[in-house]
Design a protein that fits this description.
six-stranded mixed β-sheet; 491 residues; Pyruvate-ferredoxin Oxidoreductase, domain 3; 17 strands; binds iron/sulfur cluster; 18 helices; Rossmann fold; alpha/beta
Length: 491
């Protein structure tokens, strides 16, 4: 075994982000990179690279096929064990790996994993448990500890409404067919070495055609836990490992038979966090505390306004969508907001669909926007052609330097990043675009934007500068040359 070189089961370069890349798309301190390396190094050691088929899930590790120089299948969300079953039964000599996160395996694909385990398929499942949905922003997963706050349980996971975290290793261990089930952790070097032993044992089990093997790997997600990588590892020791005890749960190929850590039942019954009430009154009280100024109901809309806002992660695309939706709602309209994220937590692409209407809204997806707010070039490339004829296309000309044209739409080039930069607050380019949207389309009033903005910002010290940016956007629009679908240009 080569101990310190890149395993040959990895591609030499990872072309996810263009030729020559040698780093993965994972965040700093993420456990996926470590887990990948453990799996790849064991594939090398066992000499099974040419036999191995890696089933990638949906989630942060969706791009497994960019890293593993093996057979690869990218599976539908939660369905990797079903795909692995098909591979197992058709490729008798293959080593089939199902690599899944906790949202994918314990939430969306719970039925698939339970039945694959119950059938005793001769496959190996690596279950990465980081206690949240990572790719989409840290939402509550089936494995989230009670009391932990996430974007979808902002007052903490409550046992009364959300149940206890699901213990997958324990659940799989109750079935008769699995031959090897172990939970390991990446909380430190010694535990990582132990995790590698479990990975090797599981793959050896499959190689020897013993049956279903399952390794749960507790793994850090510093970005969504809002911790440094070092803090994340300590949190695993302090919080995750007591809830998810490490150890061998089933080993009918070795020395132990269906063993469990002796303190398992005691640990699971012990009080851990005080559950926090997540009832509707708490939300109502929270919104009431915003103390919004009075907002005038708007005149009826003559059509449903379907907005697509798109850009890089970090450009405030989602918060711009929320701001528009909140303003419309405050003016008494019906509205929906639907986020869509790229797979990367940093530097990827993102878009939000917002619908503002006076009638009931059907599907919240916006395929043919009446307004496109494009913050970067890829957004133009992807969505400009989808704007409905007669629609409005607003783009950030600070970043998109070449001219954008659609003869049948109103096209507005807004140097949003430059306007924001001149005010010393580059992060406010999204607010400039929302203000332009309000003034151009009159779907929401710019006065409402000013009133809602303070309640939308997490940090009150940014209210004043954002209000200045709205005024700067108005000044820009007074002198802007706008290409319209009917009259050519107007200013
Ligand atoms: S969001 Fe979390 S799990 Fe996903 S790549 Fe980043 S650190 Fe890893």
């Amino acid at each position: 075994m080569v101990k310190f070189a890149k395993p040959s089961a990895f591609y030499e370069v990872f072309e996810r982000k263009g030729p020559g890349q040698v780093v993965s798309h994972y965040c700093p301190g993420c456990g996926h990179g470590v887990a990948h390396k453990l799996v790849a190094s064991v594939i090398d050691e066992l000499g099974i690279q040419d036999q191995t088929v890696f089933c990638s899930p949906v989630g942060c590790s969706v791009f497994g096929y960019y890293y593993f120089d093996t057979g690869n299948v990218q599976c539908a969300h939660g369905r990797a064990p079903a795909v692995a079953t098909g591979l197992r039964r058709s490729l008798t000599d293959a080593i089939v790996i199902s690599y899944q996160g906790d949202g994918d395996l314990a939430g969306i694909g719970l039925a698939e994993i339970v039945h694959a385990a119950n059938r005793g398929e001769n496959i190996t499942v690596f279950f990465i448990n980081n206690a949240i949905y990572g790719m989409t922003g840290g939402q509550m997963a089936p494995t989230t500890p009670v009391g932990i706050e996430t974007p979808t349980c902002p007052y903490g996971r409550a046992r009364t409404s959300d149940g206890d975290p699901v213990h997958m290793s324990e659940m799989i261990a109750t079935l008769t067919a699995p031959v090897y089930v172990e939970r390991v952790s990446l909380a430190g070097p010694a535990k990582t070495v132990k995790a590698r032993r479990a990975v090797k044992k599981a793959l050896t089990c499959q190689l020897e055609k013993r049956g279903f093997s399952f390794v749960e790997i507790l793994s850090p997600c510093p970005i969504n836990w809002k911790m440094t990588p070092v803090e994340a590892r300590q949190w695993m020791v302090d919080v995750l490992e007591p809830i998810f005890p490490l150890g061998v749960y089933v080993d009918s190929i070795g020395e132990k038979q269906h063993s469990r850590p002796p303190d398992d039942a005691e640990t699971r019954d012990a009080p851990r966090f005080e559950p926090v009430s997540a009832d509707a009154d708490a939300y109502t009280a929270a919104f009431a505390s915003f103390d919004l100024p009075p907002i005038e109901p708007s005149a009826p809309l003559d059509h449903e306004c379907r907005v697509k806002i798109a850009g890089f992660g970090g450009q405030g695309v989602m918060s711009a969508g929320v701001l528009i939706a909140n303003c419309a709602s405050a003016e008494g309209r019906r509205t929906s907001w639907l986020p869509s994220y790229g797979p990367e937590m940093r530097g990827g692409t993102a878009n939000a669909s917002v619908i503002v209407s006076d009638d009931t809204i059907g599907a919240p997806v916006v395929d043919e926007p009446t307004v496109l707010i494009a913050m970067n070039r890829p957004s133009i490339d992807t969505f400009a052609s989808t704007v409905a004829p007669g629609g409005v296309l607003i783009y950030n000309s600070s970043i998109v330097s070449d001219e954008v044209s659609r003869d049948d739409c109103t096209v507005v080039a807004v140097p949003a990043s430059d306007i924001a930069r001149e005010k010393g607050f580059i992060q406010g380019a999204n607010v400039v675009m929302v203000a332009i949207f309000a003034m151009l389309t009159r779907t929401i009033s710019v006065e409402t934007v000013k009133k809602i903005l303070p309640a939308s910002l997490k940090r009150s010290e940014f209210v004043e500068i954002n209000l200045e940016l709205i005024d700067a956007a108005a000044e820009f629009l007074d002198t802007a040359v706008i290409a319209t679908s009917n009259s050519g240009t107007r200013s």
